[in-house]
DNA sequence: AAATATTATAGCACATGTGCTATAATTTGT
DNA sequence: ACAAATTATAGCACATGTGCTATAATATTT
């Protein structure tokens, strides 16, 4: 009989890296002294999405990051100013 | 009668920014002299996805960018070493 | 020019990002 | 301790990212 080969596609959620991004975002936001709500407003996105990013519940898209960076009025390389860990997909 | 209010959620595809990212990726990949296929292999992702990013057909996630950056053995801030245009959602 | 390598497209399926809305939990200020 | 502000969670719906596979288009080499 034919095998039921379930081929599991591996998508990735890079928790380690996303944690560093979240940390950096919180830092910058704190420096600027603006709330998640205010940032969401300025970036024209939802508070829930900002919160999801900061609590590492989601794997944001590059466009989303671009919006945030613009709203924070900070260079892109500033938000990404951290060292990526070697990678483990746990 | 009740109105058929279609409320159009606005998602964003930041073509301008993504074009710059694509350009930077191509540049780095060229410098390193590796093909899309080789990069895909090293990053453990598909050739099609690399191509989609370089031709601005997709809005990649941060985790995807992390994989690419690791495979290119280049700092994160290097891939993002460009100036974001002010933003237009055409 | 033919062969080979590289890049671009395409379509399907599944997983997930995000908007939207509401509520809960936590922190801050009085 | 209370009130107010801020942050975190949650669930639904829809759009889309990505793997997978195949093929087409283009560029490179011989």
Question: How large is the radius of gyration of chain A?
Answer: 16 Å
Q: Identify low-pLDDT runs of chain A.
A: none
Indicate the CATH class of the domain at 21-78 in chain A.
Mainly Alpha
Main sheet of chain A?
none
Oligomer: homodimer
Q: Which descriptor suits the 3D outline of chain A?
A: globular
Global mean pLDDT of chain A: 91
Distance between the termini of chain A: 34 Å
- Supply the CATH superfamily name of the domain at 21-78 in chain A: lambda repressor-like DNA-binding domains
How many β strands of chain A by DSSP? 0
Range of strand content of chain A: under 5%
Q: What is the CATH architecture assignment of the domain at 21-78 in chain A?
A: Orthogonal Bundle
Explain this structure to me?
The structure is a homodimer of 90-residue chains. With 90 residues, the first copy, chain A, is mainly alpha-helical. Chain A has a domain of 58 residues: Orthogonal Bundle (434 Repressor (Amino-terminal Domain)), CATH 1.10.260. Chain A contains five helices and no strands. In chain A, helix 2 packs across helix 4. The longest helix of chain A is centred in the first third of the chain and has 18 residues. The model of chain A has no long low-confidence stretch (mean pLDDT 91). The structure holds a DNA duplex (30 and 30 nucleotides).
Strands, helices and their partners?
The structure is a homodimer of 90-residue chains.
Chain A: H1 15-32, H2 36-43, H3 47-54, H4 62-72, H5 76-79
The structure holds a DNA duplex (30 and 30 nucleotides).
Could you provide a short overview of the structure?
Chains A, B: This is HTH cro/C1-type domain-containing protein. With 90 residues, chain A is an all-alpha fold.
